[in-house]
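A student in our group prepared the protein record below, which I am reviewing. Thanks in advance; the entry in question is below.
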Amino acid sequence: MDGIRYAVFTDKSIRLLGKNQYTFNVESGSTRTEIKHWVELFFGVKVIAMNSHRLRGKARRMGPIMGQTMHYRRMIITLQPGYSIPPLRKKRT
């Protein structure tokens, strides 16, 4: 999976698991159709909607040189009812 970096686990993303929505950080240059294809191919699910936003890199200093981390893109992927991504599924107690 070239475009998907990793799954995101924040308070909001854990709350979205109940709505069958999963959050991933992806490569900045990836298109929506590429991400949709990779998710459907790798996880074996059907995607019905995708929302994305770009997040700026954070400023970092190394001695006198000021730099920043890489920009990245976050995708919120909504799956069809009945589908889920097993390792990321929230346990019900």
User: Anything to note?
Assistant: Residues 4-79 form a domain with the Alpha-Beta Plaits fold (CATH 3.30.70.330). The radius of gyration is 15 Å. The chain has one domain: 4-79. Residues 14 and 90 are 8 Å apart (CA to CA).
